[in-house]
Amino acid sequence: MSWYNKRLAKSIWVFHVSASPCNNCDIEILDLLTPKYDVERFGIKLVGSVRHADAILLSGIINDKVSPKVARIYQQAPKPVYVIGFGTCPATGCCFKQTHNKDYEQGHPIPIDLYIPGCPPKPEAMIAGVAKLMEVLNA
What we know:
The protein is an alpha/beta fold. The chain has a single domain, classed as Rossmann fold. The chain is built from 5 helices and 5 strands, in the order αβαββαβαβα. Strands 2-1-3-4-5 form a 5-stranded parallel beta sheet, sandwiched between helices. Helix 1 packs antiparallel against helix 5. It is globular. The mean pLDDT is 81.
């Protein structure tokens, strides 16, 4: 295991990228910061710059308009960076799958390492998903 993964296993800083969502996932992400869930006690911290992030939390579909912006954000992140697809939209496109401005046959402009399913996923699922990522990094 590299020294970087050992550091991530204790604390992971997450940058949220909102790529054309319906905002249901965004509300659940904000719920993670409330005292009820308090994800910072697990070492998960939401940061304001991708340059400080260990992981990118992606919500919404990556359509043709935001695709170059999401790719540029991914390029700006220090490597290795892990991408977490939050919700059904990054995984399958959900109800936006047949839209005119997204071709899901082309795939994603960035690699997604972990999917957290649900529309929207509950905060408990988000905590479990990031804990699973930290467990994989710890192995």
